[in-house]
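agent: user wants the structure for Hexose-6-phosphate dehydrogenase/glucose 1-dehydrogenase from Ovis aries. delegating to structure tool.
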Amino acid sequence: MLAALGMSAEPHFKRCPGVWKMLMAAVCVALLSGLQAQDHPGQVSIILLGATGDLARKYLWQGLFHLYLEEVGKGHHFRFHGTALTSTEQGQEAIAKVLESLSCPGDMASGHCAELKAQFQQLSEYRRLKTPEDYLALSKDIEAQVEHEGLRETGRIFYLSVPPFSYVDIARNINSSCRPGPSAWLRVVLEKPFGHDLHSAQQLAAELGSFFREEEMYRVDHYLGKQVVAQILPFRDQNRAALDGLWNRHHVERVEIVMKETLDAEGRTSFYEEYGVIRDVLQNHLTEVLTLVAMELPVNTSSPEAVLQHKLQAFQALRGLQRHSAVLGQYQAYSGQVRRELQKPDNFHSLTPTFAGILVHIDNLRWEGVPFILMSGKALDERVSYVRILFKNQAFCVQSEKHWVAAQSRCLPRQIIFYIGHGELDSPAVLVSRNLFRPTLPSASWKEVEGQPGLRLFGLPLSDYYAYSPVREQDAYSLLISHIFHCRKDSFVTTENLLASWVFWTPLLDSLAHEVPRFYPGGAENGQLLDFEFSGSHLSFSQLLPEQLVPGPDSAPLPSDFQVLTAKYRDSPLISAWPEELIARLAGDIEAAAVRAVRRFGEFHLALSGGSSPVALFQQLAAGHYSFPWAHTHLWLVDERCVPLWDPESNFQGLQTHLLQHVRVPHYNVHPMPVHRRQRLCAEEDQGAQAYAEEISALVTNGSFDLVLLGMGTDGHTASLFPQSPAGLDGEQLVVLTTSPSSPHQRMSLSLPLINRARKVAVLVMGRMKREIAMLVSRVGHEPKKWPISGVLPDSGQLVWYMDYDAFLG
Ligand code: BG6
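agent: tool returned. relaying tokens verbatim.
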């Protein structure tokens, strides 16, 4: 409209108001400033750093040219400054080549195209940008040129297509020497990677934050510029009526978010070795897509603030990932490529994954129980990216399949696919099964896909879908550059959004740091090797294989090591095995004890410890023990941290997440420790410990738990009974408040005398970190003050040690 009035859209850029404000401002101020705009049209300078690099040559110059074509008729003036560290001569030559190769949209007449291209070339220059003086000179040149041409400076866009280690220096230079004057805006565009983990991302964010305001930064995730990805929220919005009842755990069977590539990492191993597939693709592209699918839909989907808030809420609901939430692979040629490109010795083997499948769960009412599968890999059989939402199907069709009609049959698969690109369809598209509903898409920019006989997608012929593709395909960078110009911040990754993603991924990355990936040959030859499946929250490859084609960092114990195994540890029975077998054995023993106790007494009292070791046990109990008498089981806590029960650090929270929510224990049989009373945590006066002791005495005969599960800390602590701290080691008290050397310091714990009244005590010890203390404790006598674990000796019950080989053999 503004263009039609011959006015500048300048106020549009001054701030980034919401749509309503934007419209108001555009209409009102355009009228007011029309004269002024005509007197002094505005100029935007775009400075592309790394202008001769790969990304710039492939996409960014084309994106800038596209912006120019879109905007030039609308009263804007532009200057494009390609910069790099190379000499002026070399840079000019490189850029002249790129500019020559630029293309216009297919429907533009060639004469017109040539004219605009020549104009664009005229407005583009190369300059070296290295020292603070170079930045100052650039700034002065822009000011002088703007003045000379009788223009007004509207703003500057700095597009940093450079390695992240140079961000901070460049940011400092822009900030100190190349900011535009107060009446013009500054936008700084950054390309990933934005850190390597949470810590480095925080550091980089803090450094950049000291130079730029949040609204000045545009972090690119090019998936947000893919037409189909950019359509997810509008699609959800425009089809609210049909989707409202469907977009939830009652109807969605699973969600798949996939990016498959045929190319490998050759030529990029110096980058790839440091990042791997999870950091390269899942932490950013696939996570962004995940949040767009999973987030609650804001009332106003065009408000960047609302979208961000809803995204952040979605992040908060993501269940933490465990080691078993992932399967990893590496194409076989990878290590050889790394050795060649990075001059590594012949015996070097990389553990960097080039393939990953991840199972994500979202703990909120909308998505509870729905698996979200994220998958990406290099050297796979095809190149394709998509999001597939598969709906549950409870229909039974009486007529035979040949009578099924796509639009009516409830028996055909029902799915919505955001087909991001490539693949058999070879174009972006939104597909909705005809037996779901006819979707609404903006008719000016999306058209129905023409039939392609014989083409089947996700188990259905293309004709069984309502299928739409963009009227005009546009590459992601062109779209994003246009959004930068139009201040559409919702297409970019804000600092909060970025850090939330790293909060989610970093613990998994840490736990997988030494995982040996499964090796795959690459391409079609991968066969079923990488297929994976899930059970509960565990993901595993479908095909079992002898792993370890190359040795991992920890070489496995030799058979001779096992000769040292005895069946006793501290004179009590010892069970030692690989972690999975050990957990399976312990879970089996607990179930057997439960069945016996329920048969004899009608109930089973189980006291459980917190921390990380029992998590796998809880998961095992939750996933595979259907005959467990949960309805007659009472669950007690061995110890608790003095934090609210909903805090992620709470032991009860761990129990809730990994066990309680998956089994059917009556609520009145669950006994969390009362650490949070009268809105205070573990205050002596609140008598929480006494209250728990009374509850135990009232419900557990003689205070004798049927089974107490303990762990052993590296300092010899057990439950929350710590060395050199006398509380709970002897005396009459059943439950005590204690102090831990590590945070959170305040704890509540069963006392040693109460633990020793149990019919059975199982001590679970896992991991290499426990090796030293396991050795030490094997030798010491009864010295609970120094090593509380040494005081565990049931008065008349049985003590059994469960240790994995890492803890026992190191
Ligand atoms: C990039 C990754 O961000 O995305 C590459 O660094 C990957 O490893 C690329 O190949 C895939 O993007 P597209 O647009 O080809 O799907």
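agent: one observation worth passing along. The two ends are 73 Å apart (CA to CA).
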